[in-house]
Fold:
Amino acid sequence: MKLQQLRYIWEVSRHGFSVSTAAQRLHTSQSGMSKQILALEEELGLKIFLRNGKHLVGMTEAGQAIMKTAGEVLQRTDNIRRMAAEFCDDSSGSLVIATTHTQSRYVLPPVISAFIKKYPDVSLQLHQGTPHQIAEMAAKGAADFAIATEAMENFSDLMMMPCYRWNRAVLVPRGHPLATLERLTLADVAAYPLVTYVIGFTGRSRLDDAFAAQGLDPRVVFTAVDADVIKTYVRLGLGVGIIANMAYDAHRDSDLIALNASDLFDYSVTRIGFRRGTLLRAYMIDFMRMFAGNETGPGVEEVIQCQSQSDIDRLFANTVLPELNSMPDITQ
Structure:
């Protein structure tokens, strides 16, 4: 059994059982990879993959068990490489971050700017996707960190550190009737067509839960993953917008009024997640510290010492996370 064979089956399982895609990812030939997979199956005396003709279509029960252990072996191998790199040069390497549009557009720019300034020899890649996609990337080792508000709890291989809490703003054009109210209620908001995030993005579940709890059934007429797109359609008069408060800029969006909705919805929490058992290099730990920005609660060093997500949850059980707008300015 060769380590490369384990990497082959791991990559094939990650890419929809497409040998050609996995071969491209590993810069090798499709035929050579297929031969090595067959050789491994022959050596083990069982089938790892289910086949339909020449095509791989799934994994056998034995294959699923083997894949779990193969992933652990490959992770340990990657940890050895990271350990060696840390001893050779602790300020150079690569960092892959998977996150959503909201985080990459409104939260990460000052963090990444400060990080690149401090670690100019670290190659940084930023991948955007749905919360499920980015959590899966981190869980499978394709990204070092996943940063999101939703979906990460669905992946047991992730260790997630809560970083900050945030809430929403109700967005209306100037002169809108809602802007004249002394106290905004959910019923007031639900009386108008709504423009907000796609289900599964940017804390949308908290929004839906709040309306449902009061027996309200708002009419959502348009959804998008991008707050700037939502603003565009609010300007067109399509409906009242509900966006993350971090996405409103008083100067750039001066034609719109952002009504504080903190009393209407529960706070959402954004987390940074990494794959359980991964050796984090010093600059990766520093990136977590920069992003978390929590000077009063548990630190990153305490989080990475935790053995399970339940340990992290207990660590933060009595911690009041900072609100995004009150987080320290790391660029100073």
About this structure: Confidence is low (pLDDT under 50) at residues 326-332. Residues 170 and 259 are 5 Å apart (CA to CA). The two ends are 53 Å apart (CA to CA).
